[in-house]
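Thread: quick sanity check before group meeting

JM: Hey all, I'm pulling together slides for Thursday and realized we never actually wrote out the predicted structure for the chain we discussed last week. Dropping the sequence here so it's in one place. If anyone has concerns about the input, flag it before I start.
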Amino acid sequence: RTYSWDYDEEFEMYAYNLNTETYEKLTDTIGYDAEGAYSPDGEWIVFASNRQAYDGSLSTVDQKRFKLDKKFPMEIYRARADGSGVEQLTDVDGYDGGPFFNATGSKICWRRFDAKGLSAEIFTMNADGSDQKQVTNIGAMSWAPFFHPSDEYLIFATNKHGFDNFELYIVGAAGNGEPVRVTNTAGFDGLPVFSPDGTQLSWTSNRTSDKKSQIFLANWDHEAALAAVSASAAAAAAPAVTEAAHEVKAREQAASTATVEAVTIPDITKHVEYLASEELEGRLTGTVGEQKATAYAAELFARYGLKPGGDDGSYFQSFEFTAGVAVGEDNEVTVKAGNYSVNPTVKEDWQPISFSETGTVDEAPVVFAGYGMEIPDGKGGTSYSSYFHLDVTDKWVMVFRYVPEDLPTEEQLKMRRYGRLRQKAALARKKGARGIIFVSGPSSKVNDQLVPMRFDASLADSGIPAITVTDDFAERLLQGTGKSLAELQKSLDGGEMKEGFEIAGVTMSAEIDVDQQKQIGRNVIGILSAEQEGPHPAPAVMIGAHIDHLGKVAGSGSLATDEEKNQIHWGADDNASGTAALFEIAEQLAAKKKAGDLKLERDIVFAAWSGEELGLLGSSYFVRDLAKNTLGQEDAPLGLLLSSYLNMDMIGRLDGNVVIQGVGSSPDWERLIERSNVPVGLPITISKDAYLPTDAMHFYLREVPILSAFTGAHSDYHTPRDTVDKLNWEGIEDITKFMLLMTQRLATSAEKPKYSSVAPPKNQNSRGFRVYLGTIPDYSQGDVEGVKLSGVTGEGPADKAGVKAGDVIVGLSGQEILNIYDYTDALASLKVGEKTTISVERAGERKTFDLIPGSRD
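JM (edit): ok, ran it. Output follows.
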């Protein structure tokens, strides 16, 4: 099984005598005793133990914690070599373990987990437990420390670069400088120890061809190590500068390293490593990390000689957005039934919906209205209604959250178009309801019965109070009717219309408070001007990439596992890779123009977008602002201002072909792509779909021809595993050169690409399902029939069924799958928890597996 311990209370330590080949029991106390080490003179041992949990000394609170977490009370102990004279050296919340003496036996190093066990730091103390000192502050899993015999520094392992990527670092024994990196190989490097003379290092690594761990040896350069930790300490002791000055200095240093001679891997690497660094904390829009990233972009644009294209003569274009919603402090519901009155608990029994109207809702009766939908029949009437013969005026309306469960696929798809929560709320408001109550119902089999408090990118509330309640809450409301929630849902799940009813004798009032959290994001816009008369001598060519990512903890859009949720989402591929390419293209073209080697027919506008991960916010704001301020109309087409828009989003994992998307938006693209690729020789797959989930789509909808480069989805997408070490640098270099040549051709040609309208994908409204399979489609699959997978989510339904990365889905639930749209249609027919089948092609062979869909909610 996975690496884990039971912390067995009978676990004891023994010494083995190499000469007599006999064992000596050193501990004999109830509790887990382990992780022992000798002092250099052999007189002492130091070890970890949770024995205090069994001696009655823990508080009542800590005893409860111990029942849930056996390692919680682990502390460091010292004893004589024969196990006598035991002394407890540490007494702090969190698992203290892995202790070692230094070369003289005067010091002990160890690692301490935080109270939740999510991170660990390195500590030292005197051999008697005094002078305890924390020497790292990384916020990751740092462990297995070991002193160098000089006592000047320690070596340890940490996964600061990714959940499953442990690297070796050294840190000064005084802890007065940043740790210095020693190893640079993806995977596990850990458990380091020095030879007694300090000239060799031994450690464990899985840097082997079969990825199995072995022990490695290397010569150790003590003088170089000492110089590195000394320099780190000196930097930490340097006179403090303001944060702004430090940022400017860091940006200048990073920007000055970029060469103007050519697109090169070292230049790309410098940009990516800064954008995906710990300092930028995942670049979430509106955070300090995003501000640093956009400041870096502006500094580069200025150095390259681009003209500012943002607000008030700057490079920045700021936009306000709602960063999220939260349950406010002033929420209360009161339910009355006769002389009985109750106030259910917010966040446990009920909570407001994110789009709810806020304020006081006066006491009103409660009615039940099935699934809360009306579907038009196309003749001015309705083919389905939850409200027939039901008066809901000035009443609370309780409705089920989804759509009937037992319908044929086509009917369920049709209902889904009218089954969104906002639509149900709008309908209830139209019917005159005072408020709406959403309940999941037992046949929905959701993970969380309360609708999560998620921001849906709309700044407006629904105009009606809206709350979500648990099934148990709803059952209590129905108690006097003689009807159960399960019976009501079952009677509706076949699609039959059932008359709603008032819940006699029950009334409800509420105080609803939803907090909207406003923040400011900013795009970075730079212009390489053609310097002809007028601001735009011809419609400009624009190229962009989003600079933002998901931040330092799992939030909206994150696919992190539970163990990863508090880790930085580095976003190396998504989208430090595309942004680095943008910088290189801007630098190269600006340098060519300055040298007189580039005669532009039109401006080139470079954009580093923010807010992409939150719903394409930055690019959406840009097109609205440009249309309004230049053409006088927010929704005006932009073809008169922009000849074309090129985009780069996730170009860092080239493994086969790069996908050039949006080719259907112009009949000229295929010829231009061929010509631009001649000097580069990229393996290219074209996709004509122009309705892309990236910034390019806003331009296409404004009648601007678009192209977007993309190397495909992967299992690290939107997780902390999207790290720098996994990028294909040669692939990024080639894609950057290709997109540079495309930009140059468009900017130096007197002709602009013609715009073509592409039909939207069929059944696009069927996307977004409650069922969850854990499949990650490979959008670079080209003309393969079926849905090729770039990966499957670990422990997800597909993974458990036996589906693997590289499989091509050709059948689901008895339906033939030829493309992604067939797949989404088939998903709509699945039910949570109900066994079905999935068929895949693997290495030319068709395989069929049983699969049990899970719930996404």
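AS: nice. Confidence is low (pLDDT under 50) at residues 240-261, 762-768. The two ends are 28 Å apart (CA to CA).
JM: adding both to the slides.
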